[in-house]
């Protein structure tokens, strides 16, 4: 662990877990893996963190294999393609992976044309289907925690996506409790930036599995990422200040309507 993580990376992962009380003794953690370097590094971190953690918890990687509509597939028989490569990466880390087969929602002709030029509704439907499958699997298999590989840059980008595209001030929380506390979503890499995660992956000898999504390069997130990089390059310290601002909200200076309780 120490030879892979720098002192700063180790400290920030520990701080995120402590700040948000992410793990507890006896937790059964589903690690949502996508094949990207973020989720692969997350799987390694949570797997190896158990060696020094003062608590006992289980980790089980799960991959949702989203494909176009077709004949039914049995996850246990999945030995090739992208799912097979992801399972190989995890096996090299000492982890077995469960594959959940899933189908992309069918698109009309107009929707297919739109998906060919930009990622809008199809991304929402795909993400919703993945989330539903993970939630259902967690409930059926007794998981009380789902770990996601989102990092600091993802959190900031989501804030700006919601701000510019949905008109609200919100983002992904490092820990979010759902379903009357029956399930928690945690993001242990929340205090690391993408560059650091890539560095960890390189030191581990991990190669991400390339995405096969046809619209992965046409998303609003990619647009926002470019705008943020421009701002970071133009304004010194802005990367750190923007992230800090998400935990330093001054509600008295927002356009919140006040409702009097007096008639």
Can you tell me about this structure?
InterPro entries: Rossmann-like_a/b/a_fold, TilS/TtcA_N, tRNA_thiolation_TtcA_Ctu1. Keywords: ATP-binding, Nucleotide-binding, Transferase. Residues 28-225 form the tRNA(Ile)-lysidine/2-thiocytidine synthase N-terminal domain. By secondary structure, this protein is of the alpha/beta class. The protein has helices spanning 7-19, 37-49, 81-92, 109-115, 121-141, 152-166, 194-204, 220-234, 238-245, and strands spanning 28-33, 58-67, 98-103, 145-147, 175-178, 183-186. It has one domain (7-248): 3-Layer(aba) Sandwich (Rossmann fold). The chain has nine helices and six strands. The chain has a six-stranded mixed β-sheet with strand order 3-2-1-4-6-5, sandwiched between helices. α2 (37-49) packs across α7. The radius of gyration is 20 Å and the shape is globular.
Strand ordering within the main sheet: 3-2-1-4-6-5
The percentage helix is 40-55%
Q: Stretches where pLDDT falls below 50 for ≥5 residues? A: 112-118
- CATH fold annotation: Rossmann fold
CATH superfamily: HUPs
Work out the radius of gyration.
20 Å
**Largest sheet entry:** 6 strands, mixed
How many structural domains?
Answer: 1
CATH class: Alpha Beta
CATH architecture: 3-Layer(aba) Sandwich
Mean pLDDT reading: 89
Q: What would the principal axes of the Cα set say about the shape?
A: globular
Q: So how many helices?
A: 9
Number of strands: 6
Q: Assess the beta-strand content as a share of residues.
A: 5-15%
Run of helices and strands: HEHEHEHHEHEEHHH
Q: Structural class, judged by helices and strands?
A: alpha/beta
Q: How far apart, in Å, are the first and last alpha carbons?
A: 61 Å
Pfam families: ATP_bind_3 (PF01171)
Domain tRNA(Ile)-lysidine/2-thiocytidine synthase N-terminal: 28-225
Keywords: ATP-binding, Nucleotide-binding, Transferase
Binding site for ATP: 32-34, 38, 64, 149, 154
């Amino acid at each position: 662990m120490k030879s892979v993580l720098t002192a700063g990376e180790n400290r920030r992962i520990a701080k995120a877990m402590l700040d948000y009380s992410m793990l507890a003794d006896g937790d059964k953690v589903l690690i949502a893996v996508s094949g990207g370097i973020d989720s692969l590094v997350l799987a390694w971190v949570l797997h190896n963190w158990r060696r020094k953690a003062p608590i006992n918890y289980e980790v089980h990687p799960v991959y949702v294999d989203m494909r176009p509509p077709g004949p039914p597939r049995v996850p246990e028989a999945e030995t090739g393609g992208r799912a097979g490569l992801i399972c190989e990466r995890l096996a090299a880390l000492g982890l077995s992976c469960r594959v959940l087969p899933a189908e992309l929602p069918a698109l009309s002709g107009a929707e297919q044309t739109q998906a060919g030029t930009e990622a809008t509704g199809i991304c929402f439907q795909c993400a919703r289907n993945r989330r539903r499958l993970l939630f259902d699997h967690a409930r059926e298999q007794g998981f009380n925690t789902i770990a996601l590989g989102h990092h600091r840059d993802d959190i900031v980008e989501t804030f700006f996506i919601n701000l510019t595209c949905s008109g609200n001030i919100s983002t992904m929380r490092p820990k979010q409790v759902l379903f009357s506390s029956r399930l928690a979503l945690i993001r242990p890499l929340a205090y690391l930036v993408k560059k650091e995660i890539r560095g960890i992956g390189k030191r581990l000898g991990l190669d991400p599995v390339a995405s096969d999504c046809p619209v992965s390069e046409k998303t609003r997130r990619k647009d926002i990422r470019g705008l943020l990089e421009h701002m970071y390059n133009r304004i010194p310290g802005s990367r750190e200040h923007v992230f800090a601002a998400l935990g330093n909200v001054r509600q008295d200076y927002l356009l919140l309507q006040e409702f009097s309780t007096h008639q």
